[in-house]
Write a structure and sequence with these properties.
Blueprint lengths: L1 H23 L6 E7 L4 E6 L8 E2 L4 E5 L4 E7 L7 H9 L7
Antiparallel strand pairs: 1-2, 1-5, 3-4, 4-5
The structure holds zinc ion (ZN).
Length: 100
């Protein structure tokens, strides 16, 4: 039993560690995360590392639909400290579908 559970425990630990590291770097991953697409659009998405039903996870970047420009693109999380109040407000009002 223990031997079977081990890969699951290791995978969960790696994901948890990735979330902690990303948060230390100032990225608010692990919930509602502000992201920027390659064309500069800002929006909020549900970003849970390792969990993705609507996007292809590329580690710190993802390929998904941008609701602002209505196109498919690569998006990157944006550090909260890098956002102006206007950008934060804009992102808060633009949220894609609420599934990870
Ligand atoms: Zn866009």
């Amino acid at each position: 039993m223990k031997r079977r559970l081990r890969p699951i425990v290791i995978a969960a630990s790696v994901l948890a560690l990735g979330t902690v590291i990303a948060r230390r770097l100032g990225y608010k991953v692990g919930g509602n995360t502000v992201v920027r697409c390659r064309q500069g659009h800002l929006f909020t998405t549900l970003w849970i590392p390792g969990v993705k039903l609507k996007a292809i996870d590329l580690g710190i970047a993802r390929f998904q639909h941008c609701p602002v420009g209505n196109h498919w693109t690569i998006v990157f999380p944006v550090r909260d400290s890098d956002l102006t109040d206007d950008e934060r407000a804009f992102a808060a009002t633009h949220h894609d579908i609420r599934i990870p």
